[in-house]
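Need PDZ domain-containing protein's 3D structure for a figure. Predict it.
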Amino acid sequence: MKRKFLLPFLLFSLLLGASCKKDAVNPDTDKENLLKDSTYYYSLAVSLWEDKIPQPKAGSDGKLDLRSFTKSYSNAESVLEAIKKYTVVDRYSFIDREGVVSEEIQEGVHKETGLTPIFISTVDPNKNRVTNLYVKIVQKNSPAEKAGLKRGMQIVSVNGDTKFNYDTDQKKAIAIYYKLIEGKEPMNLVVKPVGESQTKTIALNGAAYSIDPILINKVFTINNKKIGYFFYTSFVNVYGKSGPNEYYEAMVNAFKEFETANIDELIVDLRYNSGGSTASAELLANLIVPTAGAKGKMYDYKVNKYFEQEGYTDNNNPKAPFKSVFYNKKNTLNIPRVYFLGTPGTASASELVMNVLKPYMDVEIITINGKGTYGKPVGFFGLPVVNGFADLYITSFQTINKDGYGDYFNGLTGRITNASDGFFSELGNTDEAFLNTAINDIMKPNDWAKASSRKTKDGLNRLEEMDIPEKKGYRNNMYKFLDQNFNTLPPLD
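Structure prediction for PDZ domain-containing protein:
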């Protein structure tokens, strides 16, 4: 007899009573109240830390009252933030009102400029501290790439405005930062290319584009040693409705090039990769793992007691959505060691790949400025609620590698944590500081030791990257896209 994957939670039949009645105010208020209740309701059901969340009170009619908890909050986001405080470590759960996760992570479609800027504080020849705005990265296929923007360019003005000094007016500087990312209106940028004194004007506007997450895929030959270099910017889902998609094929083909070149070493650059689909992470891990681990366990899921009781982790049931994941290596690449480049922005699916490979090979993680990666060993799946008004992403699972390790909430680190990001060098050049650190470590016995510089080509010593508040936190996550046969819960609405 087949088990039906529906959750008969004790309290949920009761939650559909008076506590969820629609308020006769107006449609918007009505939807928001339902979304607030839904946020509380589903947190109780699917949260990895459901046992920390206060249970709803019983009303005079004996039914459990969600509204007694949610009525104090103005919107669903406030409800979620209150719940997250009870769980202590939940920095991750969020509400998607615009469907951006479906567009960006599942389909690879971004609606913006494809430019990520950066404020960098430097010291000029007169030892004065100066903070300027630069181009950090330009995504492939993006409007920014087509406009001619390049990494390391200084952005001198935006629509004639030069007054966005981070040191004196942080609020305005941050507004300009996101204006450049989002591209909601046409912009004329005056930029100064790296190493040049003359400026140029570039027109830029945001638009929908299909991201190509493989920014660089190449092989370096140094002293007869072949080093593969794979720069990956986002774990876009590698499966569509009909099976493997173009992102799957692109990743597989990239590694075929490494096999053809017979590489000795591999550097995977995830410095700006904040995560995405678990399926994409699994594919990358399968392509990297040595042949000895070709059929070994990749990872287990840790879920809440309700999921456990319903058999959602039952390895004897092929349809169990959170059963153990095993390697299924199909390529022939067989190397004993892999290097990963990471930053505090390297999160979730990126960290999953590093962690699941550790039991099978030498995993060298190189990070910057004495810090590790972000620290996000947990993930979620989408819960559409209130007739499509929003999607809830409640942290629902943690991933545990073959050796039983998955508690890297403070990030992952390796032997080398003092590397630096060569913001003023072209990505993929062996003299770019971060890549150079990895190559030097690989070639150390042969004394290759090609030096990199922390200076810009204008002679400025780089000090630090300025902090920017996160507006697109949904990108820093790990998503499991469940197939349509998985029915999670009865809808609240």
